[in-house]
Specification:
Helix content: under 10%
Radius of gyration: 14 Å
Number of strands: 11
Largest sheet: 7 strands, mixed
Distance between the termini: 37 Å
């Protein structure tokens, strides 16, 4: 299993960004999985911000810090999971990583689905910098 993030870079405050996680080693339309986006800013803990759980019918979870201005989406044809963020602020600056587990997890709720310990496979991350 390999996950590769793309789409990071520099964005102005108030702007938008789309990050893409390309999965290989498994097909999103063939297996059950959970895929999430995490971010980590210097000196801060890793924060789970969005996840999608195929075992719960594609249910999506969002952290309060990004809810309402972020959308996680799955493209089975491209085997990708994307995260679109709008109205970005400098506090969104961080290394963004996607992570995955394979199998079925049900009933863990938002806290469980945004817990980095839940995920086995990780990408290397992509830097996002929001300028003020």
């Amino acid at each position: 299993v390999q996950l590769v993030e793309s789409g990071g870079g520099l964005v102005q405050a108030g702007g938008s960004l789309r990050l893409t996680c390309t999965a290989s080693g498994f097909d999103l339309d063939d297996v059950n999985y959970g895929i999430a986006w995490f971010r980590q800013a210097p000196g801060k803990n890793r924060e789970g911000i969005a996840s999608v759980n195929s075992g719960e019918g594609g249910r999506k979870y969002y952290a309060n810090s990004v809810k309402g201005r972020s959308t996680i989406s799955v493209d089975d044809a491209k085997n990708t999971v994307s995260l679109e963020m709008t109205n970005m602020v400098p506090e969104d600056s961080a290394v963004y990583s996607c992570a995955a587990y394979l199998g079925v997890l049900i009933g863990h709720g938002r806290q469980g689905m945004l817990d980095p310990g839940r995920y086995r496979y990780w990408g290397e991350g992509t830097q996002v910098t929001v300028s003020s």
